[in-house]
Amino acid sequence: MSRVSIKNKYKVESIKPRETHDWLLNKHYAKRIPSIMYSFGLFDNKNVLIGVCTFGSPTSHHLCIGVCGKKYYKNVIELNRLCINDHSVKNLTSFFISNCLKSIKKDYIIVSYADTSKNHHGYVYQATNWLYTGLSAKRTERYDINNPNKHSKTVTETMNYNELSIRKRPQKHRYVIFIGTKKFKNNCKL
Question: 155 with 164: CB under 8 angstroms?
Fold first, then answer.
């Protein structure tokens, strides 16, 4: 299916964060709601929601500084969830991400990850011209054995540290893209 037919058969629109919740809790492998600043839906020609994409504040303050330094740490956001129905339409996910990025009208450094434990490599980020910055560090994390999908930051802030289990955290491929004005993009060099 050519790009023209994708454009004619699908559209990307801003949606309310709560409209993503069912998708994120029931279809995305993380099974939790992240920080959401921007949320988008992918709709077919019958106006049926067939995918969601969300952007928000990264959980790590150190990541924000580490990407492009202290000067731009407030400009760092994360593409933190991408979930789309199984499909056979070539380039549909790339079309979705590209249109989400075009809809965000601010200067941002956007970070996203491809989870190696889910056999993700980040091909969609490569196809949409993100910069590959390597694998995340090998680490361990604390987690709640009764709710293993709860983010480690949330767990350590809300539970007794000694009651938590420890596991190896899977490494992730990290990708970065700069959006916004030409001046902003030129000033933010990795």
Answer: yes
Mean of pLDDT values over 8-35: 94
pLDDT digits (tens, 9 = 90+) for 73-126: 899 999 999 999 977 788 999 999 999 999 999 999 999 999 887 787 899 999
Q: How far apart are CA 17 and CA 130, in angstroms?
A: 25
Q: What is the DSSP string of the chain?
A: --HHHHHHHEEEEE--GGGGHHHHHHTSTT-S----SEEEEEEETT--EEEEEEEE--S-HHHHHHHH-GGGGGGEEEEEEEEE-----TTHHHHHHHHHHHH--S-EEEEEEEEGGGT---HHHHHTTPEEEEEPPPEEEEEBTTBTTS-HHHHHHHS-GGG-EEEEEPPEEEEEEEES-HHHHHH---
CA angle 18, 36, 172 (to 5 degrees): 125
Rounded distance, CA 164 to CA 174, Å?
27
* CB distance 3 to 99 below 8 Å: no
Given pLDDT bands bounded at 50, 70 and 90, which one contains residue 144?
Answer: very low
φ and ψ of 3, to 5 deg: -60, -40
Name the pTM for this structure: 0.81
132-153 average pLDDT score:
63
